[in-house]
Amino acid sequence: MRRHRCRICYLEWEPFPLSTGASPMYARRRSLAAHRTPLPAAPVVIAGVAVALLALTGCASSDKAPVADSTKALKVVTSTNVWASVVSAVGGDKVNVSAVLSDPSADPHSFEATPAVVLDLSKADLILVNGGGYDDWALTTIASLPAAPPVLNAVDLSGLDTGEGFNEHVFYDLDSVELIANKVAAELSALAPADGPTFTANATAFTAGLTALKTRAAAVGADHPGTKAIATEPVAGYLLADIGLQDVTPAGFSQAVEADAEVSVKDLADTKNLLSTKSAALLFNNIQTSGPVTDELVAAAKAAGAGVIGVTETLPAGITGYTVWIAGTVDAVSAALNA
């Protein structure tokens, strides 16, 4: 490939593909508990990508974020398609939303940004990340940009206590999602004031749907008071609380998950015992991180007649709306408890 030399800084570089449609590479699939230890993109790789980006943009840099072109749809980039669905609900046809991660079989925690992802982020008018250690690769990449656009961090905006034991999967927390939706509307309105009323109206409609979901979830719990559940990971923990389920996952099992350690034979046996004795009526299983331990728990749950609720960290194929996605999980819980 022919090399190029910048006329300003004399840096030599090779062009890289600009297409953002290429499938990203994933460093690895995590083990059962690896989500508590995110793997940020390698600094050397990010530095190299930043240099290439400088070359592509004529080696120019600025201390100011780019100003949106009011004649075009605003470009918003999110770390996952879950957050993209929230932005789409608020922005409507006034925004062009793209998600870095949308593969249902992918692990959002161990992703490493490609040059195409860096370029896509650099062209955004607004970026929405989850935060809380969930998608540190995004924050690392954004920090490498010569001129970063405004960034919304969902965990920071949620106002939740991020101390010991914090569950970073705030996209399952309906209250937090409502806060983020309203903040997205405010940011989009600042970027495109003429469309502000549209963004506000869309956010109002979206949050009304969230309120209806909260009522629906609470009704399921009210019909089955005191129901106990086990979770292979705390992915949907906030939704369990909204439904009114009691998470009785043994402490040893949860601690092993938190520490990214092997689950002991005793802790696994204690967890399976809750299912076989019908002490726990439900098992929430993150289907994006399957392995021998989760497979064993799923088998135990089915043998005991317990309901198995599959949860994901990205929207499954064919699901484009956030409320539709959450409603599907609530309905699955209801169906399992009424079976």
From TrEMBL:
Q: In the UniProt record, does the keyword GTP-binding occur? A: no
Main location as per UniProt: other
Q: Where are the transmembrane segments?
A: 38-56
Signal peptide, first to last residue = none
Subcellular localization, as worded in the UniProt entry: Cell envelope
Keywords (A to Z) from UniProt: Membrane, Metal-binding, Signal, Transmembrane, Transmembrane helix, Transport
The coiled-coil regions, if any, are: none
Q: Name one GO molecular function term.
A: metal ion binding
Top-level taxon: Bacteria
Any one Gene Ontology cellular component term annotated for this protein: cell envelope
Q: Name one GO biological process term.
A: cell adhesion
Xref: PANTHER family: HIGH-AFFINITY ZINC UPTAKE SYSTEM PROTEIN ZNUA-RELATED, METAL-BINDING PROTEIN HI_0362-RELATED
Q: Family, per the entry?
A: Belongs to the bacterial solute-binding protein 9 family.
Give the protein's recorded name: Metal ABC transporter substrate-binding protein
- Species: Nakamurella antarctica
Mind giving the lineage of the organism this protein is from?
Answer: Bacteria, Bacillati, Actinomycetota, Actinomycetes, Nakamurellales
